[in-house]
């Protein structure tokens, strides 16, 4: 994929019960696309290109017009806010359950965030102008956009509450789990510098937090741009926001999909999410 790179964002380059892998009849594993009826997917397919999401690539920059809507099949992307003083912070993580650039349907406007590939993968891409045309023709695609917007608003709202109320160690564990939900292995291709950008803290703070998480057994190793996690131990170190976000996304998809295709949540997962307290 021919995408630009932003100097600020350059960093050195097992199974899991995260978001379900759902495939359409054409093998698409992006959950939004896979949930579309065949006739509506047929409207999109002539315009979709398959692209590679390179590690650390910048898909869109804050202030630039949104040129493409990108539907990841594999990999993980974070949306970053650039502050006037040079600080940055992540506002959302996106993988095969979502898309980047979908708010372009609201009309031409600059992107409010910078989208960075944190874990390499593949995606389908469509020009924003072509997606708008199909959006206007298809009620199912409009519902798909609505579901995505609901999921993103939920993530923004919970993230805002989490940043205000929870300690930075729990927030870092939550971000690592969010990225883990979107890839298929426990070795996350992240540097401490990338984590400091995502959390909006100093690199020395991340180093201290990594040491604490290693002592708890939540981080197995951290070297050469790879952070190997122990998911169970990391979940114990995280705040409730990760589990609540994941369950809320499942409920959004389940409420709008055919019951026979809806992912099944274990009762203890639902109970845990409710006990932790949802923020809306």
Using the coordinates shown, work out and report the CATH topology.
Jelly Rolls
The major beta sheet can be summarized as: 4 strands, antiparallel
| Succession of helices and strands | HHEEEEEEEHHHEHHEEHHH
CATH superfamily: Jelly Rolls
Q: What is the structural class?
A: alpha+beta
The CATH class is identified as Mainly Beta
C-alpha geometry: globular
- How is the largest sheet built, in terms of strand order? 2-6-4-5
- Radius of gyration, taken over Cα atoms and rounded to an integer in Å: 18 Å
Instruction: Give the number of DSSP strands.
Output: 10
CATH architecture: Sandwich
How is this structure best described in words?
The chain has 10 helices and 10 strands. It has one domain (7-276): Jelly Rolls (Sandwich), CATH 2.60.120. It has helices spanning 31-34, 38-44, 128-137, 139-165, 168-180, 192-199, 203-215, 231-237, 241-256, 267-276; strands spanning 49-53, 58-60, 68-72, 76-82, 88-94, 114-119, 121-127, 187-188, 219-223, 226-229. The protein is 41% helix and 18% strand. Residues 1-25 and 259-280 have low confidence and may be disordered. It is globular, with a radius of gyration of 18 Å. The chain is of the alpha+beta class and 280 residues long. The chain has a 4-stranded antiparallel beta sheet with strand order 2-6-4-5.
